[in-house]
Structure formats: C-alpha cells, structure tokens
Design the sequence.
C-alpha cells in the first residue's frame, strides 16, 4: 500500500475525497446600525459586519472562490414576537438586496430563517406559558422566509426546529410566487454545547431555560433520520446536519439513507476550539482545518457551512 503514498503527486492522483472552494458556505453576521465592523472575541477572525461593509466582504469571498454565504441578521429592535425578522426593511432583507444588486448570480445568498436573534427572550419562536408555541411560530417563520425570497434570496434555511416548519414555508413561498426558491432544511439540528460562540456573536442566548424541547437530543441518531425524512416529505430541497464534527455518523447515515443534497454546519464552538489550540501551538492550524473539512466531506456532506471558508480558500486549489 505504501507504493501509492510515495510522493505528493501520487498521493494526489489516488485521493478519494477532495474539498473544493465550491463546497464551502461562509456564514456572515450583519448587524443593523453598526457604525464599524466589530470583531467577535470568541471566534477569532470572525466579524459582525455593518451593512455598508457587507458588499466588500462578499466581493472578497467571491474573488477567493467562495461564492455562497449564509446570512444572519442582528436587528436594532428585539421584542417578544421577533417581528424584526420579517420586516421588509429588516437588516437581512436589506443585506440580500445589497448583495444581489452588487453581485447578481455571481453569489449564492442563503438566509437563516429563525427568530432567536430577533426575540427579546432569545428563543426560536413565540413564547406561551413559558414554552415555544409551535403553530403560531410557524406563521412567523413563513412570513420571514417569504420576506427573504421577496428581497432576492437564492435559498432559505429554516433553523428553528419547529414541527412543520418546512411545510409551512414551502406553502407560503409557493402561494407568494416563489416556487423556485429552494429550502435548505436544518433537518437534524441538535441541542449542542458547541453553539456558545454563535450565541455571543448573534446576541441570541436564551434568557430562560434552554432549547432542548425543540432542538434534537444528541443521543438519538434514528430520531434524526425521522426528522430528516419528515422535512423531505414536507418539501425540503436540501438537508443539513448540525453540528458537524461530533455528528459525522449522522451525516453518513443521512447521506446513505436519503441520497439528498446534504449540508453540514461546522459550528462556532468547533471553530473556536481549533483556533484556541492553534493559538497555543498545540496543533498546526492549516493542516487541522483541511483535515476537519475533508472529514466532514468524507462523511457524506456535499456542502459545508463553515467559518473556515475564507481562510481555507487560500489553501484549496479549486
């Protein structure tokens, strides 16, 4: 077997799994009324962008070969209902319009569809008697998705893990003339310890309780398959497993069972841990990042949502 490992070119010739720039989706935080970009302390190298600086960042990503982004908005106003999520002049809606005006079809603009960044309590839906109310939340998520599509989003990605969210969004998109807008479903999103830095970045930490009543228990891979099957039945065009590194087995099961376009979200805590270890000199950053991304793709992901996208593009050949 060592004959096929003797030189770098031979190793490249027989390589079975290759990560390319087109596999990568860069998450982007945009904050309303931000006067200048704000670094995110728990995610070194990541930034909350102002609307005015967003175009520059997107152009830089495009020039590096990363042509897909996933937008997360941080509004000026938060309230119990998260109404800023679906306002026509909301921060995500303005960001979509800006990017599509500037870059058109040279960039894929995806949007996270959830209420957690927009609610004063930090939960992903409407609260009733201390719990997230399922059916009322569905309407707000559908309104948000339609507002994103109307602004020009190329795809919408519902992440609230509310039962029936894909069906409600698909129906609303179709009824409003957006039959061609695809849905990337956060189909198996787990209640994870690895979301902490994101919640700092997006100011979305729950003010009470946690999200275990609607996000998945990480002990249940077969339940994850049922969640994914339901989302596909409801009209999902692509599926996602989140997080990625501790869930490579779930990615593998999902791809083998459903043969759907499959995304994996290499989340903020996974990013922050690698950055911290590299900062201490405990690992080689470049090789570790490329190994992580390859592992995620090897497990079955067709696309990887990752905060490493921009820096990894410097090291990938295509």
Sequence:
């Amino acid at each position: 077997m060592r004959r096929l490992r003797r030189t770098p070119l031979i190793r490249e010739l027989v390589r079975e799994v290759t990560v390319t720039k087109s596999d990568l989706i860069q998450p982007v935080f945009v904050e309303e009324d931000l006067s200048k970009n704000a670094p995110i302390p728990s995610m070194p190298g990541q930034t909350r962008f102002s609307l005015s600086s967003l175009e520059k960042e997107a152009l830089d990503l495009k020039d590096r070969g990363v042509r897909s982004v996933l937008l997360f908005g941080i509004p000026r106003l938060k309230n119990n209902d998260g109404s800023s999520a679906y306002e026509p002049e909301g921060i995500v809606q303005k960001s979509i319009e800006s990017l599509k005006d500037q870059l058109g079809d040279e960039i894929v603009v995806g949007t996270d569809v959830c209420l957690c960044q927009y609610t004063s309590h930090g939960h992903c839906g409407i609260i009733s008697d201390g719990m997230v109310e399922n059916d009322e939340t569905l309407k707000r998520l559908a309104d948000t998705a339609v507002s994103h599509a109307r602004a020009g989003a190329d795809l919408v990605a519902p992440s609230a893990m509310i039962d029936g969210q894909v069906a409600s969004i698909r129906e609303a998109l179709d009824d409003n003339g957006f039959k061609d807008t695809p849905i990337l479903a956060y189909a198996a999103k787990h209640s994870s310890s690895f979301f902490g830095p994101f919640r700092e970045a997006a100011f979305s930490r729950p003010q009470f309780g946690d999200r275990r009543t609607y996000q998945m228990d990480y002990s249940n891979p077969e339940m994850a398959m049922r969640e994914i099957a339901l989302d596909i039945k409801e009209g999902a065009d692509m599926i996602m497993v989140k997080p990625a590194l501790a869930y490579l087995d779930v990615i593998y099961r999902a791809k083998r069972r459903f043969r759907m376009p499959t995304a994996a979200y290499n989340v903020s805590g996974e990013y922050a841990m690698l950055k911290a270890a590299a900062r201490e000199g405990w690992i080689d950053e470049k090789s570790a990042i490329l190994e992580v991304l390859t592992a995620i793709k090897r497990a079955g992901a067709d696309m990887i949502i990752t905060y490493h996208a921009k820096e990894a593009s410097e090291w990938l050949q295509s």
